[in-house]
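Internal ticket - ligand job 355, manganese (II) ion:
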Amino acid sequence: MSKSMNIAVIHGDGTGPEVMREGLKVLRTASDKFGLSLNLTDYDLGGERYLKTGDVLPDSVLEELRKQDAIYLSAIGHPDVKPGVLEKGILLKLRFELDQYINLRPVRLYPGVQTPLKDKGPEHIDFVVVRENTEGLYAGSGGYLKQGTPDEIAVQESINTRKGVDRCLRYAFNLASSRSRKQLHLVGKTNVLTFAFDLWERAFNEIGAADFTSVDRRYHHVDACCMFMVWAPEQYDVIVTDNMFGDIITDIGAMIQGGLGISASGNINPEPGGVSMFEPVGGSAPQFTGKNVINPLACIGAGAMMLKAAGHLEAADCIEAAVAKVAGELPGLGVGEMGIGTDAVGDKVAALVAG
Ligand code: IPM
Ligand code: MN
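stdout (structure tokens):
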């Protein structure tokens, strides 16, 4: 495997650049230690650029991003930009254009980290959500009729293709079969969404029975899943679900693992030559810009996921172990709860990685 990687870095808006600085600090430390050569290129995308130039994601930039090995993104979002412009124009566009059909969100409570769940510890909270990332309600299918009149109709359709569902399920089955519990929950709503989740359920059972007989297949409705995630999260090993449900349940996942300060995610195109994008789950939190109070561990963890996806397992594990240790030692993981600044948290992780 190549030890060199071309990485596009999107520093983003608000507090994005502050956490990215720490993410890159740790990435550079790890690449020195493990002999990787990371070729980083900065891309100026986000609210600031949009307000200055009107550019959201120029085609020329998209074409350059296609040629990278991976994208490392902090957070995009600006209080002066109308909601939806940057989300749809940058984040969702990159997910769709680069066919990053898996959104991978590990939910793991590290020892010493506080969870809001009473009597639950690291042994109860250790699962991964595989969220379909290019279809469902996010596909942008629908429209208005008679917009702005009393008879207005707005339709927003959930698109579920057999191909899209199959490839997502196969990824989830493969992941489940690589873990010791080998358990996979499909999360859906087969009792109401009887077209979409019928397709999901049939595909789930067909693929499981044909190719993954070692994986224990289970099903939960999404409302029950929300209940179990806070009441008995130890039920879960791997969860696979559609785009919208995955968006919602992974916010619960983030909170039970200690909050957005520690939650990392990957938008993955698992195909050969696919370009994947790694980001913290949290947003740009612009009200805290420059205050050095945002937790960089989620962004650092996203960097570890990026190295892992590229096959640099030793470096990835080393960063993850350092993140876990620092997380467990901090008094809290929320904004301003860390007792030390954003930069000092990054220094601690980097020092552990350097060894
Ligand atoms: C996420 C975010 C995005 C999503 C938004 C910002 C478009 O909430 O990554 O979970 O809905 O996917
Ligand atoms: Mn979300």
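Auto-summary: The domain at 1-108+271-355 is CATH 3.40.718.10 (Isopropylmalate Dehydrogenase). The radius of gyration is 20 Å.
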